[in-house]
Queue: 3 jobs
Job 1
Amino acid sequence: MKDLTIAVLPGDGIGPEVTAEAVRVLVAVADLYGFRLRLPEYPIGAAAVHESGEALPTLTRNGVREADAILLGAVGSPALAAAKGNRRPEAGLLALRTLLGTYANLRPITVHAALRHVSPLRAERLEGVDLLIVRELTGGLYYGEPRGRDDDAAVNTMRYSISEIERVARVAFRAARARRRCLTSVDKANVLEVSQLWRDTVSRIAAEYPDVAVEHLYVDYAAMRLITDPRSIDVLLTENLFGDILSDEAAVLAGSLGMLPSASLGDGPGLFEPVHGSAPDMAGRGVANPIGAIASAAMLLRYGLDLGEAADHIDQAITTVLLAGARTSDLARPGETFLGTREMGEAISRLVLSGGAAEPHA
C-alpha cells in the first residue's frame, strides 16, 4: 500500500470550506484504490498572518517541502488589503509558487453538458468546448524588478528570459500533443518587446513538435476568440498576467469560477487549487461551490501522484452528479433547489465510494 503525504493549506475565506470537501473526496478515493494518505494542515495567507505575523511562515515552508503534493484553498482578506510585504496574504501565494518552482499553471476549461444553460453564451456555441490554458506562473509583471510606488508614481516590470519561456512552452506543446495537437500562443508582440521575445521563442520551440499546429494571437483578439469561437482553441499558452485574466474570462464558458481547477507544476511537488479566490462575502455560509477544489484534487492525483485512474474516478463522479441534477447556488436557476458546500461534497464522495449512479435531484 502506497503512503502519500498531501500538505493541505486551507487558507482564507471559503478556502477551508471547499478544501474540506476536496479532502473528503480524496479520502474516499484512497479507500477505494488502496493507498494511504497523510494530510497535515498548514496556514497560509491571512490565516497565517493572524497566527504568526507572515503570510508564508517557516512551518508551512518546511511542510510543503516534505510533501508529495500540495492542496490549497484560497488566500485573501479585506482586513489585510492594505498590508505590506510578507503580511499581505497574496504575498504568501506568490512566495509559495517561488519556493516550489511551479512555473507552469494548467487550467482546464470543460463545459459539462448538464451546465450549458448556466453560461450566458448560447448552448450551441458551447458544445464540444474542451480547452487547456497553460499560464507561465513565476515570471512577468508579478515578479519583475524594479517594482514599487511612491507618492507620485508606481512601477512594475515585465521581464522574461528565454529559458523561462522555453520551459513553459515545452509543457504546453507536450499537453497539445496528448490532446488535439493544436497550440495557440498569446502575446502582445505588436507593442511589447517582451512579447516579441515570447513569440520568437515559442516559434523556435515549435520546430521540436512538428506534429503540433501553432498559431500566434494578440491577447485582445484571443480574449474575443475565447467567447466567439471557444471550440477553435485546444491548448492556449500565455504569460503570467495575460493568463490570469484570460482564465478568469474563460470561466464564463463553464458557467462559474467555482467549477474550475488548476495545477501548478515545476521541478518539485505540485500545487493544486481551485481558480476562484477567497470570496470573503460567502465565507461561513456553506454555499460555496466545492467542485473546483474537488476537481483540483483529481488533478493532484493525475499530475502530482501519477494516479490517473483514481483521478478519472473523481472526474466521472463530478459529471454524474451534475447530470443527476445536483447544483450549488452559483449553478442553480432562479427558484431551483441547490445543495450547500458540504452536501455537494458528500454527494460526490458517496458516488466515488459506490461507483454507481447518483440519486436524482429535484
Job 2
Amino acid sequence: MNHALLPSVAKATLPVKYEAAKLALTECNRVDECKEWSDKMMALASYAKQAKDEELEKIAMRIRARAIRRCGVLLQEVENATGAHLKSGGAPTLSRKEAARRAGMSPDQQVTAIRVARVDGDLFEEQIESDEPPTITALAEQGTGKAKGVPIYVQQGMTKKAFQAGMYFREDLKHFIKQIEGYDYDDVIAGSLPEERDDIIRNISVISQHLNKILEML
C-alpha cells in the first residue's frame, strides 16, 4: 500500500466523511477494495494515535472494522467446501480461499473477517458506535459461535451487559499492563515530587481494592 496516498492526521476529514464511508463500504462488492480500506484505516489509526488525536483514531477504527466485516460478508458468499467451487459443467469458479488470496488477505485475515461478519448486526453497530470501539480481535472472538442468527452472548448464557463488561474489562486490563510495563519504575519515583508520590500511592491503593475484589469473586 502506498502510504503517501493517505491523508495526513492534521488534515484528515474523516469525521466529516464518516457517513459517506459507511455507505461506500455497504455498497462495496469487491473484497480487494474492502481490504484496501482496512489497510488504510489501520495506518491512519496508528498515525492518529501517535498524534494523540483520539477522535480521529476511533473513527479510523470504526471504518476499519466495517471494512473487515464487509470483507467477511463478501467471502461468505463464496463457496468454501472442497469441490464446491466447480460448476456442473466442470468450469472452475473462484474458491473462497483463492478470492481472499487475490485480495491480498492471509489465511488468518480471512478467518478473522468471516468471524467479524458473523457478529450479530445490532451488537456490532452498538459496539462500533460506542465511545470505546472494540478491537478487531475482540470482535472476531465474538464471531466464533456456530449458531447462526443467535448472538454469542446468548449462546454463552450471558446477558448483553455482562458480555460487554467482560470483553471491555479484559481489553482495558491488557492495555493497562502494556502501558505500565513501558515505564522504568526508578524513573517514575525519581520523577515524582513528595505530594505526587502520595497521589500515586492513593491511586494504586484504589486499583488494588478493585482488583482484589475481582480476584475474590473469580
Job 3
Amino acid sequence: MSKKGSSFKDVLQSMFATSAILVAFLVSLYLYYNVMGNPVNFEGGNPAGKGLPGNYLAIVYKGGMIVPLLMTLVLTLIIFTFERFITLSRANGKGRLTTFVRNLQNLMNEGKIDEALAACDKQKGSLANVMRSGLIRYNDLKNDKELEKDQKILSIQKSLEEATALELPMLGKNMIIFSTLASICVLIGLIGTVLGMIRAFGALAQSGAPDALALATGISEALVNTAFGISGSCIAIVMYNFFSSKIDGYTFKIDEAGFSLTQTFAASLRN
C-alpha cells in the first residue's frame, strides 16, 4: 500500500470517527427530549414536574443535561464496537486461522509455493496478506545465485516486517477510543453526580420545609449519571480487553507463520 493510499484511508477513518460521534450526539439529544422527556411520562404532562410512578424514562430524564453527553459516549462505544467486529472479522479472513497456518506450513514444507500463494489469495485475511508478501519474496530468492544465504533470509524477514507494519495499524485502529471512553465515562458521570448532589443539598438548605421535588430531582440526577457513567466505563473496559486479546492473537499467528516461512527457506538452502 502506498503512502498516498494510506493517508487517504486515515482521512476516511477520521471522518468516520467524527461523523459517528456527531450522529451519536444528535440521536442522544433526540432520545432525551422526545422520548425520555415526552410529557406522557410525567404527572400532568409536565416534564418539569414529577415523573409517573415506575416510569424509568422519566427517571433518566431527571438526570439533567449530563445524560445526553453520557448517552453520546455509550452510543459511540456501541458504534465502534460494531466497527471493530467488522474490521477484525475481515482481518481474520475466511476459515479458522489455526487451520490456515497449519495448511500453509505443510505446503511450505513440501515446497508447494504456488499452492501456498493460492491459499493466501483464497483466505484474504491480514495474515494471508503478510504471508503472501513473504512467499513472493521466497520465490524470487529461491533461485538467486548472487546473494548469500544470510542476505536472503534477512530479505525475507524484511519483506514480512514491512507487510506486517502495513496490517497492524488497521488491526489497532480506533482502540484509543475504547480506552478514552473507559476513563471519561466515569468522570462525566461524576460531574453529573456532583451537580445532582448540589441540587439536592440546595433543596435541603432552604428555610422551612425542604423542596421535596427539587430534592428528589437532585438525587435522581446524581444516581442516573452515576449509573450511566459506571456502565459505560465497564462496557468500554471489557470491549477494549476483548479486542486487544484478539489483536494479540492475530499478531502472534503472523509472527509464528513468518518464523515458519523463514525457517523453511533456511532449511531449503541447506539441502
